[in-house]
Specification:
With 863 residues, this protein is of the alpha/beta class. The protein contains 21 helices and 39 strands. The strands form 10 sheets. It has a 6-stranded mixed sheet with strand order 11-26-25-24-12-13, with helices on both faces. A 6-stranded antiparallel sheet has the order 15-14-17-22-19-20, with no helix packed on it. A 5-stranded parallel sheet has the order 3-4-5-7-10. Helix 6 packs antiparallel against helix 14 and helix 14 packs across helix 20. It is globular, with a radius of gyration of 28 Å. The structure holds beta-D-glucopyranose. The site of beta-D-glucopyranose has 7 residues, from loops.
């Protein structure tokens, strides 16, 4: 539509709205089909306006209290209720982070942490636009993303869906992303508000954090989404924050979101995250999803009659839904945009662009990369992440990608027929380990008629412990049972042995070897396999005991032990020793990194041994990592010349990885998280799991159901502001790879820093500098600006990211970059005054290519 047609269409739309308002106020029913046949009148959301407010209130006035209450609860898992009396259609939702999921196959993009690794606002907008388009093509009104929780710890299971460890980077990317989505008449839903930074017991955990920590670290991306991105919807998280669930948290919902940030859109719950209808209604929740278990007529009608909940409170919620429907023109046109084919693959180039921009090169000794296909006769591609493609992690973001390109496929496509590409997984499947473990004699199984190994067990024996099933759910089995497996294992030779265990559903287990506990499964909701290694001597016999508590799905336990070098397939060893170069693709996937469970910091079982074995066989070993953040590389990092972090690169990941490995594209991603050596080095480590012995309980009553008492564990954010690089730079210690770091095939220099020597506090300060490509190939660099406030009265992190710019430069090319620092860039949250404060005095401005490499530096005095 050209601009002129668009203006005419918009005026027709305004005219239609006026007619609709008149029909409604005259009590005349209106059929949306009158206009449904017309082309979309305007895709972009209109601004909130007095006309929209008047319309929303006129519509509201037509509704009974019962009808209004019905509108504030979801239906059919992914919809809001329709209300024929005001011609409000039901509004459709879809999950989001890497592609428009829920309604069939889709283009899967490099979203979440991969988007953050691009550090590219323009790409964030492009991604948002593609997602918005894909959503409209499926008739979706609410895209349930983006997720912007902070990557506080590398093990948090949904980091891959979120962005980075830094609030400024998150805020900068989330705004254009939301604008892109919403430019197609689809409301984005920023989630999960707030402090849902771990998956461990996510429904019940009470996160305790002080206000300054929240305001400076955990809330700014939400704030930017609301105040700058004008996001249509916000999704409350599952957890409690300082004693009350997000869905009934007056501080977060009323004081901050709807008060300080003046949010006028819809605050919806996460799915089944509501616990008290009256408290949720009174504390800001507008829409209970996916169904009104608590905010329903049975609870709210008497509450309104008794004055416990004001009718105006219900009215406000309904008005918010209507306001959004009017703002996004959902009453004016069918949301299904027939101009866009539902399953369009047109945005494949956007998926490729995101993958290319996000790949982050961490190590490249002796310039082993880029590889030269003309000099390679055989390349071996080995590992569980080499094939099939791993476009994203697990859980509600898991999109069914169109034709995803695996790493081995991407490499084979790129090198063509003159290079032989050898592929093997290199490791057995998990059940193979369980089935083929050679226990000494039979495994003794004692099944107790209780949940705590008490009572008289029934004894039996089994040759293997191999009941593991991939799916978590099954027919419910309520028999109280606990099972102890006792087995002997004799090492056929001296070496490292991998002990592997897996269960599913809500199972729990512990494994010990010769009485020493080596594995304890701690996840509450979901599960990933657990492993440990033990050193055994030639012929040594050990006793392995597993105490297993089956959950709702019955016995699904698998246990095995295998010599590590025997576990690596023979073809992997052979391919590695014959190839000219090897790419070992390791890391996580949807079953090891997912919503509902935290992941391990160590690589999934067997992968360390695989890298080590391949690297020993071939010095030209390049490791690719798949995952939502840092992971343990200590066992092999010194033995390999090159490491490329691929995050979760979406459906075009394989093509992009091949392009980067072979130098068709510069690796230009930069770490959006600090990459720790070990998890124990991470500042959240000591305070990640709940405080032992501090559990409290919560009594919940749902009408028509027996009351439930939930156990509430408490996690205290004692690390406060010291998240990621804020911790590393303040302590003067160093992670393995710092936040903002990423190698390139070219080199860049920073020069000509321009910073005023003084400015008045509260004014905007412009910082200028040049970036030059000093190498021989085109490349992408991210200029990063950090501010330090040495004269602050309050203790502040040593440096904080306050600006950045991605630049693409040809060899020899320079660009002048200007970054604006507004008042917030110099402020901290004053706990006593409850407001943002600038302490006049000295500030230091640093510019460079990572949080630890800032060659440009100047002082600035704020008066
Ligand atoms: C997730 C949300 C998601 C919702 C709907 C929940 O389990 O936490 O992120 O949007 O399901 O699928």
């Amino acid at each position: 539509m050209n601009i002129k047609t668009k203006v005419i269409a918009q005026s027709i739309c305004a005219f239609r709205r006026a007619i609709l308002l008149w029909l409604l106020s005259a009590g005349i029913a209106f059929s949306p089909s009158v206009c449904a046949a017309q082309a979309p009148l305007s895709n972009s959301p209109g601004p909130d306006s007095p006309a929209i407010e008047a319309q929303a209130h006129a519509m509201l006035a037509k509704l009974t209290l019962e009808q209004k209450i019905e509108l504030i609860g979801g239906v059919d898992e992914m919809f809001t209720h329709a209300e024929p009396a005001i011609n409000l259609p039901r509004l459709k939702m879809s999950d989001a982070s890497v592609g428009v999921r829920t309604w069939g196959p889709t283009t899967a993009y490099a979203g979440g942490v991969a988007l953050a690794a691009t550090w590219d606002r323009d790409f964030a907008r492009k991604l948002g636009e593609s997602l918005g388009k894909d959503a409209r093509a499926r008739g979706v009104n609410f895209l349930l993303g983006p997720g912007v929780n902070i990557a506080r710890s590398p093990v948090s299971g949904r980091n891959f869906e979120y962005l980075s460890e830094d609030p400024v980077l998150n805020a900068a990317l989330v705004v254009p992303y939301i604008e892109g989505v919403q430019s197609h008449g689809v409301s984005a839903t920023v989630k999960h508000y707030a402090l849902n930074d771990e998956e461990y017991n996510r429904h019940n955990v009470d996160v305790e954090a002080d206000e300054r920590t929240m305001r400076e670290i955990y809330l700014p991306a939400f704030e930017a989404a609301v105040t700058r991105g004008h996001v249509g919807a916000v999704m409350d998280s599952y957890n409690l924050i300082n004693g009350s669930h997000a869905t009934q948290n007056d501080f977060l919902n009323l004081k901050v979101l709807k008060g300080d940030w003046d949010f006028k859109g819809v605050l919806m719950s996460d799915w089944d995250a509501t616990y008290d209808g009256v408290a949720a209604a009174n504390n800001g929740l507008d829409l209970e999803m996916p169904s009104p278990r608590f905010m329903n007529a049975k609870v709210l009608l008497p509450a309104v009659q008794s004055g416990e909940v004001k009718e105006s409170t219900i009215d406000d919620k309904v008005t918010r839904i209507l306001r959004l429907a009017l703002r996004f023109n959902w009453l004016d046109r069918p949301q299904l945009d027939l101009a866009d084919p539902t399953y369009s693959i047109a945005d494949k180039p956007v998926a490729l662009e995101g993958a290319l921009e996000s790949l982050t090169l961490l190590k490249n000794v002796g310039h082993i990369l880029p590889l030269d296909a003309a000099k390679i006769g055989i390349i071996a591609v080995i590992g569980p992440d080499a094939w099939p493609a791993v476009p994203g992690g697990g859980g509600s973001s898991e999109a069914t990608a169109f034709d995803p390109v695996s790493i081995v496929t991407g490499i084979a496509n790129l090198v063509g027929p003159n290079v032989r590409v050898l592929y093997t997984r290199g490791l057995p499947e998990m059940n193979d380990v369980f089935w083929h473990t050679h226990w000494e004699g039979a495994v003794q199984q004692s099944t107790y008629p209780s949940k705590d190994f008490s009572g008289n067990p029934e004894s039996s024996s089994t040759p293997t412990v191999a009941n593991y099933k991939e799916e978590w759910w099954g027919p419910e089995d309520k028999t109280p049972r606990s099972i102890r497996y006792t087995a002997s294992f004799k090492a056929a030779k001296a070496g490292k042995y991998l002990v592997l265990a897996a269960a599913s559903g809500s199972d729990h287990y512990k494994v010990s070897v010769d009485g020493k506990p080596i594995i304890e499964q701690v996840q509450v909701e979901g599960q990933h396999p657990e492993s440990a290694t033990v050193d055994l001597g030639d012929g040594q016999t050990v006793t392995v005991v597993a105490d297993y508590l089956p959950g709702f799905a019955g016995n699904r336990f698998g246990l095995g032990i295998v010599n590590e070098s025997d576990m690596i397939s023979e073809d992997a060893k052979k391919f590695a020793s014959t190839a000219d170069a090897v790419v070992v693709s390791v890391g996580f996937n949807p079953s090891t990194e997912s919503e509902g469970l935290d992941r391990t910091f160590s690589l999934p079982w067997g992968q360390d041994a695989l890298v080590e074995t391949v690297a020993t066989a071939n010095p030209h070993t390049i490791v690719t990592l798949t995952g939502g953040g840092g992971m343990d590389t200590r066992r092999w990092l010194d033995k390999v010349p090159a490491v490329l972090h691929t995050w979760y690169p979406g459906q075009e990941g394989g093509t992009a990885i091949a392009d980067v490995l072979f130098g068709k594209h510069d690796p230009e991603g930069k770490l959006p998280v600090s990459f720790d050596r070990g998890w124990e080095d991470n500042p959240s480590f000591k305070d990640y799991y709940p405080i032992p012995g501090a559990n409290t309980s919560l009594h919940v009553t749902e009408v028509g159901h027996p009351p439930v008492d939930y156990v509430i564990p408490h996690v205290k954010y004692n690390d406060k502001l010291m998240v990621g690089y804020r911790y590393w730079t303040t302590t003067g210690k160093h992670p393995l790879f710092p936040f903002g770091f990423g190698l390139s095939y070219t080199t860049f220099s920073f020069s000509k820093l321009e910073v005023p020597s003084s400015a008045s506090a509260g004014s905007t300060v412009a910082v200028g500098f040049d970036v030059t490509n000093t190498g021989n190939v085109p490349g992408g660099e991210v200029a990063q600006l950090y501010v330090s406030d040495p004269s602050a009265k309050a203790q502040r992190p040593e440096r904080e990211l306050k600006g950045f710019q991605k630049v693409h430069l040809a060899p020899g090319e320079s660009k002048h970059v200007t970054l604006s620092l507004d008042a917030r860039a110099f402020s901290y949250w004053d706990e006593a005054a409850h407001k943002w404060t600038i302490d006049p005095g000295k500030f230091v401005i640093r510019v460079g290519d990572s949080s630890e490499n800032t060659p440009l530096q100047a002082d600035l005095t704020l008066n």
